[in-house]
Amino acid sequence: MFKYIVKRILISIIIIFGVTFITYSLFRLMPDNYVYNKFAAQSATNPNWEEQAARVEHLYGLDLNVVSGYFHWLGSALKGDFGYSFIDGAAVTQKIKDSLPVSFIMSLIVTILQIAIALPLGIKAAVNQYGPTDYITTVFTMLGISLPSFFFSGIMIKVFAVDLGWFDPSLGLQSGNFTGNGWELFWNQAWHLVLPIFVSTVLSLGGLMRYTRTNMLEVLSADYIRTARAKGVKKRNIIYKHAFKNTAIPLVTMFSGILASLFCGSMIIEQIFGIQGIGYQSYTATTQGDIPFVMAYNTFIALLTVIGIFISDILYAIVDPRVKLGN
């Protein structure tokens, strides 16, 4: 086990280096120079804008080639210094800390609802194959997978915010004329999170329900399940004690990405509903070439992803005792 853990840690470090280098290279290869453009926009009032732009580029190693620039960034990142945002000049780490809580709360609630709804429905559909429950679940699954998030969000805003007026305004975390604090502020913000959480939950259910149903059907057709039925084992025990236990093995793979998803936010949903979480900030930073923020954000997500995969491998050994973690 110890050798396996050390090996996985070394591989994870290499993966993080690879991800950050590729991300940095892609941004450096973009045709536009966002630092230059930012200062050029001030040319009418700032005669020294070219000198200031050159100084910023030198500070962040953007005047170096891609490889040298990456190691310049890496040296600072290893010290915990991810620099300052090109957009507003705020410290990148502080921007991430400020925007992370709302995205985490949304993602955590969506994940809990997704598991609590999708797993039972997927099992129910498999047990009652070709029955009404199965057909309804299949239709719902296809809708969840097929509907674009921006389209479904638009429909929900039109119905519940515009027509019914339940969420007015539909953008932002609180009402425009709200001046309360304490619990009043909490409930006002919580109410404005209902619609984006509902949209995210509905759109995320389809994949997990289909995955659960497919694996459950495969397990229910196994020989040992037929043997258990022939011996008169209760149907509930067959489903939840024998079948679902083996269905959980492939589900572990799907759950390996949950850790990262809890912290990465949703770019499209947060953008549509005007929620300035980490997804909203990363979208803005990507479109405006904010290299310091994007690099810090992607490094954070890459780290969470490799940790999630590592935890997933450990869970394999817990769920299935036949799995041995070795060399």
Provide mean pLDDT, rounded.
Answer: 83
Percent of residues in helices: over 70%
Q: Largest beta sheet, briefly?
A: none
Poorly predicted runs of 5 or more residues: none
What would the CATH topology of the largest domain be? MetI-like fold
Q: How many domains?
A: 2
Write down the CATH class of the largest domain: Mainly Alpha
Descriptive overview:
The chain is an all-alpha fold. The protein folds into two domains: 35-81, no CATH class; 102-279 and 313-319, Orthogonal Bundle (MetI-like fold), CATH 1.10.3720. Helices cover 75% and strands 0% of the residues. Helix 11 packs antiparallel against helix 14 (291-319). The model has no long low-confidence stretch (mean pLDDT 83).
Q: How would you summarize the topology of this molecule?
A:
Blueprint: H1 2-28, H2 34-40, H3 49-59, H4 66-78, H5 92-127, H6 132-146, H7 149-163, H8 183-220, H9 223-230, H10 235-255, H11 258-264, H12 267-273, H13 278-287, H14 291-319
Helix pairs in contact: 1-14, 2-3, 5-6, 5-8, 5-11, 5-14, 6-8, 7-8, 7-12, 8-10, 10-14, 11-14, 12-13
In short:
Helix content is 75%, strand content 0%.
Summarize this structure as a short list of keywords or feature phrases.
MetI-like fold; single chain; mainly alpha; 14 helices
